[in-house]
Fold this protein.
Amino acid sequence: MQFVHINDVVIHYDIQCADDDKPVLVFINSLGTDSRIWHHVLPKLAHDFTILTYDKRGHGLSDLGNPPYSIADHVADLVGLLDHLELSSVILCGLSVGGLIAHGLYQDRPDLVSAIIFSNTAHKIGTAEMWGGRIAAVEQNGIDSILDAVMERWFTRPFRAPENAAYKAYCNMLVRQPDRGYSGTCAAIRDADFTEAAAKIAVPVLCVAGSEDGSTPPEVVRSLADLVPNARYEIIEGVAHIPCVEAPAAYAAVIRGFIEGLNEE
């Protein structure tokens, strides 16, 4: 584990370095999770990529900072981390709010980005009313009060089986995130709209959907792919909102296939 002061917070990150000539892949995790959601994907990619994972502010081992946040706050943290590590021309893989952060980073610093994987995300996620209701619920009753509803969107019914120890662990991950970090990032999602910016993306893009995703269903991800010039679109069958957990092998294969295709162009 590694830590660095970026802006007004301490950011937890981990970097696995392959050879200098390997592409750099940056994973940006979803709301209410931390960098451990990539745990089963990384071994399938680590020999061929330099991989950076981190906990965004208000999540995992990173500082809370001063919520509520904006996507710009999260973008500034990631830009600061990439600058600290002297990384550029990276491939971003952003899951859910991570996709919004990828949008914002490309908009502000296109020089840092060579390609983007938008995973289970959109140009705009949900409505102001929806996010306002979720923020109010968490502020009044804590993340525990929304656990079951969130898990129904995150994971398929088979994964949510009571005998699945991994499911219980990911429930623990959600409820152990700071309430204010969670609600603060809900505010960032509420206020983010990259509808116009998506049409201006000029690097290769892959949009990935889970067939059973209850948070950003396939048609929502498809709407993003339709906005981005020449974007590719793929559905991973039998998974919901967190495919890197439910189907890490399939998820890694989709990422690898996309990046290998870039080398052939």
Q: What stands out?
A: The beta strands are 2-6, 9-16, 24-28, 50-54, 90-95, 113-119, 205-210, 232-236. Residues 248-264 form the longest helix (17 residues). Residues 28 and 94 are 5 Å apart (CA to CA).
